[in-house]
Amino acid sequence: MTPSTHWIVGPGALGRLIALRLAERVPVRLVGRRPLPARQTLVSPEGKTREQSLAMARTDALPMEVPAVVHLTTKAHAAEAAHATLAAQLPSGVPLVLWQNGFACQPALTERHDGPVLCATTTEGAHVQADDRVIHAGHGHTFLGALDGSNADLARALARTLTDAGLPAEAVDDIRIRLWRKLAVNAAINPLVARFTIRNGQLRDRPFRPMVERSINEVAAILAAEGVTPPGGSGLEGWRELVWQVIEATAANRASMLQDVLAGRVTEHEAILAPLLAAASRHQLSAPCLARHLQDLRLRTQKLAEPPTTC
After folding, report:
1. Catalytic residue among 48, 75, 182, 303
2. Where is the Ketopantoate reductase C-terminal domain (predicted)?
3. Domain span(s) for CATH 1.10.1040.10 in the chain
4. Which of these, 7, 32, 162, 262, could form a disulfide with 169 (CB 3.0-4.6 Å)?
5. CA 74-171-46 angle, 5° bins
6. Residues 6+ apart with CB under 8 A from 83
């Protein structure tokens, strides 16, 4: 029998959004470290609710079935460990789709996985309201492709499946560039909203607007040295237009990094900021704002790991 079930590994907001949408078209199994209610509710951006029962599994008790596709939707810092757990139990050749922010784990897992690997970058917005309820905060678009441009037929087929399920998607042969572009936007927005616990739209006002501009300047210089252009290819002004366009379109949103801060979770700062600063170092460029963001978020992570003090 041909495998048909899509495994979604990482039942956070994005994972459950993908699972609940795909479940209308294909068999789905949601895989996580802890049990969740099988009956899940998805609230659309228009406020409509829909309930769906999902097959569940825990990462330490996977079923014997061979999945058609594995969607890895964990946070970037957890992706490699999650893949290691899965890889020991999967036969060779199972396609893997990486949905992580930033550009840290994708090259490593592309090399490590024994099968086709696609990377996804998406502007779909979602957040968890409860163990059985997910809010689809805003419609977006998803791009899919392999880092080396291979597996185009697989990317096109999966893009059709996602689109048919209500998550518009497109197969592309330049996913590496698109990952860098999303990383650039995230680097200009997420550390600031996380640090000051504000919504995206508040970045338009002082004192935050000049901070965004400084981050854009640093990102633009780094990516120019890397040969990565913004949509339209117009240098610094292109990056400025892209970042402020995203801020305007997501003004009411709580960025994923802010959601992590509010929930007391580790953020994806390493996946978003560290690749940019590594590139800056390669090209002997200064990026003090980005470096400060990374330092602050690393200090926060250290504090989260410290045991509580006792009297």
Report:
1. 182
2. 174-292
3. 176-302
4. 162
5. 65
6. 72, 96, 109, 112, 113
- Does the 176-302 domain belong in CATH 3.30.360.10? no
Give the CB-side neighbour count of residue 19, counting CA atoms within 13 A.
34
Annotated catalytic, 303? no
Instruction: Please compute the mean of the pLDDT values over residues 222-234 and round it to a whole number.
Output: 88
Pairing type for strands 39-43 and 133-138 reads: parallel
Average pLDDT on 11-40 reads: 93
More confident residue, 138 or 68: 68
The contacts of residue 33 (CB under 8 Å, 6+ apart) are 58, 59, 60
Architecture of domain 6-173: 3-Layer(aba) Sandwich (3.40)
In this model, does residue 310 exceed pLDDT 80? no
Cβ-contact 247, 196 below 8 angstroms: no
For the chain, give the number of residues.
Answer: 311
User: Which residue ranges does the chain devote to CATH 3.40.50.720?
Assistant: 6-173
Q: Is the pLDDT of residue 3 over 80?
A: no
Q: What pTM does this model have? A: 0.87
Residue for token digits 């990317």?
155
Return the structure tokens found at 157. Answer: 């087929």
Structural contact between residues 99 and 76, judged by C-beta atoms closer than 8 angstroms: no
Residue among 256, 275, 269 at smallest CA distance from 304: 269
